Amino acid sequence: MNNDEQYINRCFELALKGAGNVSPNPLVGCVIVKNGKVAAEGYHKKYGEAHAERNAINAALKKGISLKGAELYVNLEPCAHFGKTPPCCDLIIEHKFSKVVIAMKDPYHEVMGRSVKKMRKAGIEVVTGVLEQKAIELNKFFVKFVTTGLPYITIKAAQTIDGKIADDKYRSKWISSTESRRTVHKLRAVYDAVLVGANTVRYDNPKLNVRDVRGRDPYRIILDKDLLLKPAYNVFKYKDSRTIVVTSIDAGIKKVRALQKKSVVVLPCKIKDGKFELKDVLNRLAAINIASIMIEGGAYVYNEFLKANLVDELLVFIAPDVMGSGITAFENKQAFKKFTKINYYSSGRDILVNLRRG
Fold this sequence. Notes:
Layout: H1 3-15, E1 29-34, E2 37-43, H2 52-62, E3 71-76, H3 88-94, E4 99-104, H4 114-121, E5 125-128, H5 132-138, H6 140-148, E6 152-160, E7 164-166, H7 178-190, E8 193-197, H8 198-204, E9 219-223, E10 243-248, H9 253-260, E11 264-269, E12 271-272, E13 275-276, H10 278-286, E14 292-297, H11 299-307, E15 313-319, E16 327-328, E17 341-347, E18 350-356
Parallel strand pairs: 3-4, 4-5, 6-14, 6-15, 8-9, 8-14, 9-10, 10-11
Antiparallel strand pairs: 1-2, 1-3, 7-16, 12-13, 15-18, 17-18
């Protein structure tokens, strides 16, 4: 591993400190090197606040370090536009850095190589593409969101070795191991939202929050076309306005107001042939800056998203148990042909199968 890769790897580590707090912005870390030694570091801590480069530069200036001739390492191309903060590109030029090393160019349409060109024009040596694939993986949510306008969609399922996610009475709690459940809570802290169908709420009464690990709660999205769920369920007990019920445009106003009194956001969406137009649902959620969603149930919701070709990734926890009869997670195995990247991991007594699009 050369020095450029070493410092970019450190940028990845720093960037991850912002996980769960910066969306829909990307995860970004920055390292400043002067005379062969790390002079300062920074990362993007919270959406709307200073970017990684500015935090690193400010940290160096507080130490009284002159940045003229220094090198700056960052996992994503610095911004070139005015958003919630001024462009980092101009700040880098202002402080006369001699070299900037970037893991990946920014796919956002207002950047897309503009900063690279601007810095080179200012006489700065710019190196791009260092550990690029790792950088893309780190910001897979952001890349999908800014290139398609849609959130990154992951299906999370827990099933027995014979493919069942619940018994004949729809009981499904604790199929997976303690270790697997802890992993799910870590994931909830990273994804912007978790999504379930009305039946999952009805039969499991989940809380859909983060427990046993540190992290903020995700948005809780429930698909309830006819607003049949009563306000007594756990997901309606929060006062943080992070529970979203997706329903039809024709939903009854009395039911809507009853939910709104419980601090629930009601999101009316299009219905076609008695089903949600899922692309419209995702567009509406993207409009409120939800850039990543983990679907946690149930089988009907899994299969509808797969049929609509809207799933980017699957995480399937397989427990070494046999249920015999019950509810099968996935009805159409043909849908899995698109997921050609497959990895396996141990998770306590379970096996975690990760499927990604090729």
